[in-house]
Structure formats: structure tokens, C-alpha cells
């Protein structure tokens, strides 16, 4: 059967700037490894589960995006009886996802409940673009580790003053002090000044920065980083960022410096940043040099850093979870998630998503006893009487809240569910096709639909006076939020309140409070 939505919609493959959520649902932890798979919207590339929660259908109903690419992944069965391949060379073969998993894809229209030909001229490029695009998680990982340098208008339009040859003696130390390393040459006037003081023991008095501020000259190069191949640390003070100078050879020759004769004598900014990323840590000793006291017990579990991520989100969560108000606000597994256009970027949705279901990191015991008695199959005969199975009454309030978020009143939602035997998708269609029907009020007073769709009251209280106590601090050391190291300081309640330091898997009694103030990144306060 032909799908009218395919002809009426304009579909384009995802661009490099768009996020593609094709690994797990943006509103729960269901993923492509589940039996029902994951539905990726062909219009906005949102990922929605196709299982019991069926967030894909909710996305379709809210935003009228009917076409999806269903992705299902299953682990390949390893045949152990086959003889191993004969090793012909000393090497370790890299195992890819294709070696471990079987992936099946289908294109469906949720509105028409039909399967479409994904090899068609209109669908093939979109499907291929989704499968080949970097996932959102992969893009974030690359962003955390990759620094891509570019040039700028101040370098491309650089105007140098009258040229002269700077003698080697004039390049030996800062023109304003005696520092002989971390020297930066202004490419506009040839002034030589020391750079800023760097973490890791590199000294500096910021005379190059002072020259740039006083003269308005923006572009400088670090002398000790110049290589014969033409690479060097170039900094633009007007952009306040590291840059690339494709004409560095000419700009240096203007001051009598021959690029081919230069030798690198100092670490570059990138090398120092990588080195510091590996060394960033917070003091694990007190003022007397003694090791801080390790702590164990409930709410004192650390998170091991595997070396390839910074754990900012985990420490934010750990710092907030210690407060009862935080748990009450975000850990509400029985309430539906907020209805937003981009769930993956919504702060409330992602925090509440964590508390809705145990994941691979938290395994709950099975409620089934080991010696469960056989159940009589007689009750199941009720399904053979020709009537549809009764809808689960526990799901009705959740469905009513879902319709309320879409702007429909409770009486309308009740009648729609009653007319469609509890089917959510058919109930949505019924509501749109009967806009004038006020629904079933039963014993409730009639109320306009708009009242049921009023936004919830904002969290918190406006009562005064308002007194707050500092409860947790997330601290960060590094050059940016994507580099460095995160830890959390959490106040522990008790007869003698104390601060606890969560540093990766190490949990100790905090010693130096000054370090908290110096590197504080996010504060969590509790109203008292």
C-alpha cells in the first residue's frame, strides 16, 4: 500500500551539524539491542523506543513526524566447533561491530502502519546518512578530545611595520624582564615579551599580553615552539585563542628569522595541555602532608575513571543526589517525562530519565521465586471469548497525563480511551477527529481542556526570609570544560558535619577547604 506521507514530506540526510540519536531512546534507556529496536525519526533524527513505553509513537503524535527508521541489533552466535584460523603473522585483529552484531533496518510509517522500501530513490540517501552519521555520544566524545585550530582575520590581514633584522642577542630574553623561556614575538612590530604563567612550572609575567593590550597588536608567535617544518604556537590576543598562520615563513622572514634554521626547544601549548590533562588531580593530602582518611559505607561509593572521559555529569549527579529535595524533584519514576521538542537537550528530561529504570550499572534482583509453582492456565481462557483483553487499569492515569500534556482535558481523554479500547494511538486519532466532543465527565465537574493543560507550578518556594546552606561543590581543574579533571565535595550530615571528597574511585575526608573555593565550578545549596 502506498504511503501518502512519503510523497508529501521533504526528507534530507543529516548534516554534520545535526545530532543523530540512533543508539538509544532520548527519553528512556531502551536501545537498538532491545527486541523491538529503536525508531529514528527521518525528519529530526530523534531516537524513540518502539517497545512497551513506545516513545516513538508519542514523538509522532506530538510533532507529526510519521516516518521512522527502525534499527534492531542482535549479537551474533559464536560457533565454537569450527577450527580456529591458522595464524600467518604476529598481529591482533581488530574486532568491529559488524563482527559482533547483526543489524536489521526497516523504514516504517507509524501513521499508516506500513513498511516502506528503504532502497527507494527518496529514502536510500536518508537511511544511509543516518547509519553513517556520527552518533550524538560519539560527537560529544570527539569534542572533548579534539582541538581544531583555524586562522582568523587578524592573521590573514596582518599589517607588519617596517622590517628589520632582529639579532639573536635580541631574542635571548624578554624585553621587560630577564625571563629566557616562554617568549612570544609580536609579528606586527617585533616586540619580544614573556607569556603568561603556565600550569606545570612554566614561568611568565604576561609582558607579551601587556604589550598587546597597550599597542593593540594582536598576533604573536612562541619562539621556542617554532619547527623547521613550519609549525609553531601562534596566538591571537584579539580573538583570545590559539590560531594557525599559513604564512608564518614570510611573517618571520620580515624580522630576519629564517624558519628552516629554527629548532623547537620548548613544549607547545598542545603538548602542555595534554600533559596537564594526564596530571590534573586534586590534593589527596592535608596541610601537614599526611594522606587524607579514606571513607567507606552507604553513599560513599566512588566512580572509577577509565581514562577516556572526565565524569562531569556523574559528579554533578553525585553532588545533587545527596539532597532530599534533588531526589524529590528528579527521581519520579511513576510520572511521565516532560513533553519537549528536543528531549536529549532537556535538562529535566535527562535527569529524570536516570531515575526511571535500572540500567546496566544497576541490576535489581528478580521478583520471581526460585521454586515458583505451576500456574493453572484456566484464567487465560478468558481471552478466547472474542472480546479484546481488558486494558491495564494502572496504565490509565499515565495515559491521561500524556493526553493532558498534549492539551486535552481529562473528560476528553477518558472518552477517547473508552471508544478505542485503551489504544493510545487510536485515541489520539479519535481526539483530533472529534475536536468538539467534550468527553465523559462522570462524577467530575466539567472543566475546559485548557485548565488541564496548565503548566505545573515552578519548583521551590518564594517565601522569605530564605536561608541556604552550601551542600555540595563540583570542582574542576583544566583549560576548558572538555579538558582537565572533575571532583565533588559533599557535606555529610551528622553530629559533626564534615566534607567528603569524591575523586574518581577515591572517597576521602576532605582536608583543604581553600582548594574547594579556588576550583569551584558548580555550587549546590539547600534551603534551611
From TrEMBL:
GO terms for biological process: protein deubiquitination; proteolysis. The keyword Transcription regulation does not apply. One of its GO terms (molecular function) is zinc ion binding. It is an enzyme of class 3 (hydrolase). It comes from the Eukaryota. It catalyses: Thiol-dependent hydrolysis of ester, thioester, amide, peptide and isopeptide bonds formed by the C-terminal Gly of ubiquitin (a 76-residue protein attached to proteins as an intracellular targeting signal). Residues 446-460 have a biased composition (Low complexity). Keywords: Hydrolase, Metal-binding, Protease, Thiol protease, Zinc, Zinc-finger. SUPFAM superfamilies: Cysteine proteinases, RING/U-box. Residues 406-434 form the UBA domain. The keyword Metal-binding applies. PANTHER family: UBIQUITIN CARBOXYL-TERMINAL HYDROLASE, UBIQUITIN CARBOXYL-TERMINAL HYDROLASE 14. This is ubiquitinyl hydrolase 1. It comes from Verticillium alfalfae (strain VaMs.102 / ATCC MYA-4576 / FGSC 10136).
Amino acid at each position: 500500500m502506498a504511503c501518502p506521507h512519503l510523497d508529501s514530506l521533504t526528507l534530507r540526510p543529516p548534516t554534520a551539524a545535526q545530532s543523530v540519536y540512533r543508539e538509544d531512546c532520548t527519553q528512556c534507556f531502551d536501545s537498538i539491542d532491545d527486541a523491538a529496536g529503536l525508531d529514528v525519526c527521518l525528519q529530526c533524527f530523534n531516537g524513540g523506543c518502539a517497545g512497551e513505553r513506545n516513545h516513538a509513537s508519542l514523538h509522532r503524535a506530538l510533532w507529526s513526524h510519521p516516518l521512522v527508521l527502525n534499527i534492531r541489533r542482535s549479537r551474533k552466535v559464536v560457533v565454537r566447533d569450527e577450527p580456529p584460523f591458522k595464524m600467518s603473522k604476529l598481529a591482533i585483529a581488530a574486532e568491529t561491530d559488524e563482527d559482533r552484531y547483526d543489524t536489521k533496518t526497516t523504514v516504517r510509517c507509524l501513521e499508516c502502519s506500513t513498511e516502506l522500501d528503504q532502497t527507494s530513490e527518496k529514502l536510500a540517501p536518508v537511511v544511509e546518512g543516518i547509519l553513517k552519521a556520527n552518533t550524538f555520544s560519539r560527537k560529544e566524545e570527539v569534542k572533548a578530545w579534539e582541538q581544531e585550530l583555524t586562522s582568523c582575520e587578524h592573521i590573514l590581514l596582518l599589517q607588519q611595520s617596517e622590517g628589520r633584522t632582529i639579532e639573536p642577542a635580541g631574542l635571548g630574553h624578554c624585553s621587560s624582564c630577564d625571563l629566557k623561556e616562554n617568549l612570544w614575538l609580536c609579528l606586527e612590530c617585533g616586540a619580544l615579551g614573556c607569556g603568561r604563567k603556565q600550569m606545570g612550572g612554566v614561568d611568565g609575567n604576561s609582558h607579551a599580553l601587556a604589550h598587546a593590550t597597550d599597542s593593540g597588536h594582536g598576533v604573536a608567535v612562541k619562539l621556542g615552539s617554532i619547527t623547521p617544518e613550519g609549525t609553531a604556537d601562534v596566538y591571537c590576543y584579539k580573538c583570545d585563542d590559539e590560531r594557525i598562520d599559513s604564512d608564518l615563513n614570510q611573517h618571520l622572514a620580515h624580522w630576519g628569522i629564517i624558519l628552516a634554521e629554527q629548532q623547537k626547544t620548548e613544549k607547545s601549548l598542545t603538548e602542555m595541555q595534554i600533559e596537564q590533562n594526564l596530571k590534573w588531580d586534586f590534593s589527596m593530602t592535608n596541610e601537614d602532608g599526611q594522606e587524607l582518611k579514606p571513607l567507606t559505607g552507604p553513599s560513599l561509593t566512588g566512580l572509577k575513571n577509565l581514562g577516556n572521559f572526565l565524569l562531569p555529569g556523574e559528579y554533578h549527579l553525585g553532588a545533587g543526589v545527596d539532597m532530599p529535595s534533588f531526589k524529590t524533584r528528579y527521581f519520579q519514576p511513576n510520572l511521565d517525562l516532560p513533553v519537549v521538542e528536543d528531549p536529549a537537550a532537556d535538562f529535566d528530561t535527562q535527569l529524570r530519565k536516570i531515575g526511571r529504570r535500572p540500567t546496566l550499572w544497576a541490576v535489581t534482583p528478580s521478583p520471581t521465586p526460585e521454586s515458583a509453582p505451576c500456574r493453572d492456565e484456566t484464567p487465560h481462557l478468558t481471552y478466547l471469548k472474542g472480546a479484546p483483553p481488558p486494558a491495564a487499569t494502572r496504565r490509565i492515569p499515565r495515559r491521561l497525563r500524556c493526553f493532558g500534556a498534549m492539551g486535552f482535558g481529562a473528560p476528553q481523554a477518558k472518552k477517547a480511551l473508552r471508544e478505542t479500547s485503551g489504544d493510545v494511538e487510536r485515541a489520539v486519532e479519535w481526539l483530533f477527529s472529534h475536536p468538539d466532543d467534550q468527553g465523559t465527565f462522570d462524577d467530575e465537574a466539567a472543566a475546559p481542556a485548557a485548565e488541564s493543560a496548565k503548566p505545573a507550578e515552578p519548583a521551590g518556594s518564594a517565601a522569605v526570609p530564605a536561608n541556604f546552606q552550601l551542600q555540595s561543590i563540583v570542582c574542576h581543574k583544566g583549560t576548558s570544560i572538555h579538558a582537565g579533571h572533575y571532583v565533588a565535595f559533599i557535606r555529610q550530615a551528622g553530629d559533626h558535619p564534615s566534607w567528603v571528597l569524591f575523586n574518581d574511585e577515591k572517597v576521602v575526608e576532605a582536608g583543604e577547604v581553600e582548594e574547594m573555593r579556588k576550583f569551584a565550578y558548580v555550587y549546590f545549596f539547600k534551603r534551611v
